[in-house]
Amino acid sequence: MTQAPVTPELEKAAERAESRRGFLIGLPASGYLVLFFAIPLALVFVYSFASRSSTGLTVLEDWNLDSYRRLLDPLVVEIFVRSFVLALTTTVICLLASYPFAYYIATRGAALRNVLLILVMIPFWSNFLVRTYAWRVLLGTDGVISQISQAFGGDSIRVLFTPLAVLIGLVYGYLPFMVLPLYAAIERLDWSLVEAARDLYADGWTAFRRVTLPLSMPGVVAGSILVFIPSLGAYVTPAILGGARTVLMGDYIVSQFLAARNWPFGSALSFAVMFVMLIAAMFYFRAGAKTL
Amino acid sequence: MERAAVELVGVTKQFGGDVTAVDNLDLTIRDGEFFSLLGPSGCGKTTTLRMIAGFEFPTEGSVRIHGSEMGLKPPNERPVNTVFQSYALFPHMTVFDNVAFGLEMQKVAKTDVETRVRRVLDQVQLAQRADAKPSQLSGGMQQRVALARALVNEPEVLLLDEPLGALDLKLRQNMQYELKDLQSRVGITFVYVTHDQEEALTMSDRIGVMSHGRLLQVGDSHEIYERPTSRFVADFIGDINLIDGEISGSRSVRLSNGVEVGISAGHPQTGPVTLALRPERLALHPANDPPAQGRNQMKARITRRTYFGDVYFYDVEAGFDHPLEVKEENRPEIGTHAVGDEVTVSWTPDAANLVTD
After folding, report:
1. Closest approach of chain A CAs to the CA of B126, in angstroms?
2. How far is CA B336 from CA A102, A181, B341, in A?
3. Is A60 exposed, middle or buried (0-12, 13-18, 19+ CB in 10 A)?
4. What's the average model confidence in pLDDT over A89-93?
5. Distance CA B34, CA B191 (A)
6. Chain B residues near residue A190 by CB distance under 8 angstroms
7. Taking Cα atoms as reference points, which of B194, B92, B162 lies closest to residue A197?
8. How much is the ipTM here?
9. What number of C-beta contacts closer than 8 Å exist between A and B?
10. Which of A20, A231, B27, B146 could form a disulfide with B87 if both were Cys (CB 3.0 to 4.6 A apart)?
11. In terms of Cα–Cα distance, which of B292, B269, B276, B357 is closest to B324?
12. Would you say the pTM of this structure is higher than 0.90?
């Protein structure tokens, strides 16, 4: 029996078969995404150019850019800047709090490491909404913080319904999303590199700054994106903890769709936020990639 | 009296209270010598090196470098540099930045850094690759960068942890010569950790053989190979025949097969002893060519012959519980023997060595 020679045609056919297999394997996930993500997104995009009737209904004619023009309204800009600053602050606090913790976990023995990782993930086992409501109890006028203050002869403190409450809620909610990628990045670090730096006359802090930190950058980038993006569009936390006075982007978009019934404007806002996230993520990825 | 580069005095290292990695080690490494710590994996040689570097601290005893006590000094305060087993090159820095790192940390002026890094890169023939990232280099090149990165600091002692372990055989042999040349050129004390006995024998001025955290023997290559004092050292380095026997006179030993053989003078032991004989020191004689007078000899039979190209290895049955190994060169004037041949095995009395357990 002779074997057929490997011709370019045969190789190409094999390649095609390979890519067909890949397509079939990816079909359930990609089908789901097209149906429930790409198509709705396209609808939102179309709606952002639509106009409204005198009764407030969305009319799919007279396509225009009015909704996008309204994005530059000072009120909208203010809400946007507030959301951006809050998301950025949340990310920075999460990063500063998580890095030492992730470093600690990654440098423990296997047994303790697993226990600590499970502790990080335990909050996911209960409902996010319930956990956020729990903060209302802690931060309110009769809350624990206020009681402690009063016990020491201070005034009652109400953190609830302030931007600080939203910040606390966001940091609390998204901290694990920062810890886990940081842990993964630090855990796979080659410690002999740190030893090499120490051997080459670097003190502990310098070795960290010049070797550990740059090599854990992928974790910093991944964690920051995972925290920043949902913080920027957060709805539940500001709605529950923020009260009416601190309107954020998420609230504002929801109110356009529901209360104001201005679907074209809500759609335009959604796209604007997405655009900013995309740009921010791209810049961040590029900066992170440069250190590697 | 030569100056000591590194002194280890009663050094013991325990991990977790019950694992003793290094056990009461006393060792003086001379200034300017190429010293190898040789032993199987887990013998404590790397731990010893790490204690000199400052990555580990002795549980007991002290480490001195050029006379000054190291105590709990961190690695960055010790006048030594390390070449790591896996090179540990910084992947996010260029070759140049890797090599410049130590100088930069010591706050050497920018222009000096530039000239010193260029010079050392020249020395290891990597001047052309200064801007490459380590991942773009071959294993041999990475090895040379690691060497350059340590040498550029002109340390008093250079510590090398199996630096050739990851290279293929040919490259490894070349690097052995290069390293040895480099060491004699720069005159820095090298402390070289390896489990490869050939590497240790060919490169070192002196070798310390370790096993189970203990230093069994220290000597130059010749002493370690020709005059091993213990069964372990004899067995670990090269091939060896170990034959049990008993002292039967001031210069004779009765072997376990009943044959009495002569030994060279100066062995103080009495009672049971172990005779160590290198395979290449044994000679095989066919019946028509008896050995010369004065050589120890015994009757034997060839049970196996293995051809290595340059040498033949014979297993011969001589009445012991295991066959003797004999190595003969593949030269026309030395005859070969076939399996089953009756022969005489011979050796000179001074070829044998008495070793302890």
Report:
1. 20
2. 68, 68, 10
3. exposed
4. 97
5. 6
6. 86, 88
7. B92
8. 0.85
9. 62
10. B146
11. B276
12. no
